[in-house]
Every structure is written in structure tokens, then in C-alpha cells.
Amino acid sequence: MQNFLASGIAITGSGSAVPETVLDNQQLTQLVETSDEWITSRTGISQRRLALPPDSLTLLATAAGEKAITAAGITPADIDLILLATSTPDDLFGSACRVQSELGAVKAVAFDLTAACSGFVFGLVTAAQYIRTGVYQNVLLIGADILSRWVDWQDRRSCVLFGDGAGAVVLQANKSDRLLGFSLKSDGSQNQYLNLSYDGSNVELTPDIHVSTGKYQPMTMNGKEVYRFAVQKVPEVIDKALFVANLRVENIDWLVLHQANQRIINSVAERLNIPEHKVISNVANYGNTSAASIPLALDEAVREGKIKTNDIIAISGFGAGLSWGAAIFQWGR
């Protein structure tokens, strides 16, 4: 129902889902010249989950969404909007509507949002605007990616990094606004450092008309430049979000960064002077799951009892675009 009255926001439930298949570092040594010690020391990753047929992005996203809806204490019929943050849909036209159908969220409008590893943070801020303006009351935000579809398994620099998964949260209208501050950034001049590019060849329709048809190349990444970008820009954007929230670093109870690389997580925490016991990390078990990584880590921490109602959480996503962003919120109502 549209009431067009300004409203606050609460994040009231979380959920996650990962494929059953595990690929550990030792197994990767059979594919490329690498070692468990090399991967672990440089990335902090020990294993990752891979989606095998008949797994699909729709199935993972739906499972995560169902858990988040249950945790929020509502039903799929209560959902007004579904945002699916993904760069790897089952269908290039989008997978959010399939998720809507699978959930039975009969009154929800649904669409995909593509911002790669920043997708969950960008999706959170997008969802918030619909609630703050009173247009929607209950929004399901899902971050999900199956990056194994687009990895070059002969490129030892990148194939060790990525895994598959999904995470979700429910945002609801609330008397008090629990989304305390955010900041979003983009810099297209650095786009070339992380890509999943179209690879087309010319097809002659007539002697004067040639069209491009083809597929997408495997993912490419300049790891050194992405690392440099992340450790510089992520602390800055978190500081900006804290400023908007009128808070200080000391007020943060938990830091949940995009789970790209443990060295990046450690460097950002050190630059912000956030102690290790406040940093949530599960990159060792799942690798880089792109838009899924923040909600997946968040959900695990909630279900383990680490994150509790009223805790102040700082999240930050960063990656292709290049894009990055941060949000500060209190958990629960």
C-alpha cells in the first residue's frame, strides 16, 4: 500500500544459502600451479563453494530470501519489493522475477540491480529510498552471485579467489530510522581493472550491415590495482558514512566488509583503528562471493549470536566499475 509518508527503516531479518560442493585449495593445485600456502598467505581463502548443475542463481537467491523473510517474522505475501543484486543472473534479462515467483511473493515488484561486489550496499541504499518515501513497507534485498560460471580456471591469479553463494535481508518501515548514514562512489576511469567483458564477432546480415554476436569473456582482474584502490578508498568511504551518521569509529560494534581478500579486510580495519574482535570475516570458507559476501557474513554472525539487536554495524562493498560504498545501520528494530 502506498501512503507516501516519510518513514524510518529497520533491517529485521537475514538469511543465506551456499551450494553443497566444496573446492579447497589442495584440489586447486590439480588445476593450476599453486599451493595451499600460497593461496592462504595472500588471500586468507582455504576453500570456496561451487554451484553445479542443477544449482542456479534463482535457487540460491530464493533459499536465502526465504530464510530472511522467516527471520523477519513476515510472509512472502507481505513483501512489496524484491531487489536482486547480482552480476551473474540465470537470464541476461534478469532473475528477480523468477525469484519472486519461487517465493510466492505475489504482490512484490522485482528487478535486478547490477553493481558487482558493491551490489549489496548499493541495493541497501536503493531499497531504503522506497521505504523512506512511504512507497513500500517491506523490501527483500538479496545479494547473489555464481562467479564460477565466469572464472578462467587456468588463470591462477584469479581462479583461487571466487566462490558462489547468496545472502538476503528484509528491510521494513519503522518509526525510528535505523539506517544511520551511507556514502556511495564510482570511478569509471578505473573500469579496466576488473571486467567481465562482451566478446563479439561480426555477422554479415547484408553487404552493408554487420552486427555483433557472441558471448562473454572470462573475468579479468588487475589484482594489484584493485588492492591498492580498496585499501585507500574503503576507509575513506566508511569515514564519510560515519560523518553522515554523526558517529565515530569507536561507536562501531561490527565491521562487515566485502569478503574479497583477508589482507584487504585487515588493512582497512587497521587504517580505521578497528580492533580484530570487531571484524566479521568468513572469506576463508567461501572466498569472494561478490554481491553475496556481505549478507552471507552478516547472516552467519547474526545466527551465531555475535550481532545483536541495537548493535551498530558498518558495511562496505567495493569492486568492478570501479564502485564502492558504505552504510552504517543498527541491527533490528
TrEMBL record:
Keywords, ordered alphabetically: Acyltransferase, Cytoplasm, Fatty acid biosynthesis, Fatty acid metabolism, Lipid biosynthesis, Lipid metabolism, Multifunctional enzyme, Transferase
Residues annotated as catalytic: 117, 258, 288
Reactions catalysed: malonyl-[ACP] + acetyl-CoA + H(+) = 3-oxobutanoyl-[ACP] + CO2 + CoA
InterPro entries the record matches: ACP_syn_III_C, ACP_syn_III_N, FabH, Thiolase-like
Region of interest: ACP-binding: 259-263
Record-listed E.C. numbers: 2.3.1.180
Domain Beta-ketoacyl-[acyl-carrier-protein] synthase III N-terminal: 111-188
Membrane-spanning residues: none
Domain Beta-ketoacyl-[acyl-carrier-protein] synthase III C-terminal residues, every copy: 245-331
Superkingdom of the organism of origin: Bacteria
Metabolic or biological pathway: Lipid metabolism; fatty acid biosynthesis
NCBIfam families, alphabetized: fabH (TIGR00747), PRK09352.1 (NF006829)
Summary of subunit composition and partner proteins: Homodimer.
Family of this protein: Belongs to the thiolase-like superfamily. FabH family.
Protein name: Beta-ketoacyl-[acyl-carrier-protein] synthase III
Species whose genome carries this gene: Dolichospermum planctonicum CS-1226
Phylogenetic classification of the source organism: Bacteria, Bacillati, Cyanobacteriota, Cyanophyceae, Nostocales
